[in-house]
C-alpha cells in the first residue's frame, strides 16, 4: 500500500517505534491508537467500496478529522473520517463531490 506520509501511517509523527502489518504491508505507527485508527479506516473503506485491497491512501488532517483519498487501480474513493480517543470511528462519510482529498 502506497501512503503519502513518511512517518506514522495515519498522523505522520516520527516518534515511537510500532510496526504492524496491514493488508500485507508492514507499516510504521507512532502508537497503538494510530495503528487501531488505521486498521479501522482500511476496514471502513473496503466495506464501503467492496474492494479487496487498497493500492494507495492519501491522508490529510489531524485528530479532529481527516480528509482522505483511497485508490484501487483506476478507481478512487474520497471520504472524511474522525476517531474517538480509543481509535474507534466516530464519523465516516463520503466526501461531497468536488472536494479535494
Helix content: 10-25%
Distance between the termini: 17 Å
Structural class: alpha+beta
Oligomer: single chain
Structural overview:
The strands form 2 sheets. The protein has a 5-stranded mixed sheet. It has a two-stranded antiparallel ribbon with strand order 2-3. It is globular and about 35 Å long. 18% of the residues lie in helices and 42% in strands. It starts with a strand and ends in a 7-residue tail after the last strand. It contains 1 helix and 7 strands; from the N terminus they run βββαββββ. It has 101 residues and is an alpha+beta fold.
Observed structural traits:
101 residues, 18% helix
Please outline what is shown here.
The protein is an alpha+beta fold. It has one helix spanning 32-49; strands at 2-3, 18-22, 25-29, 56-62, 65-72, 75-83, 89-94.
Strand and helix layout:
Elements (H helix, E strand, L loop, with lengths): L1 E2 L14 E5 L2 E5 L2 H18 L6 E7 L2 E8 L2 E9 L5 E6 L7
Parallel strand pairs: 1-4
Antiparallel strand pairs: 2-3, 4-5, 5-6, 6-7
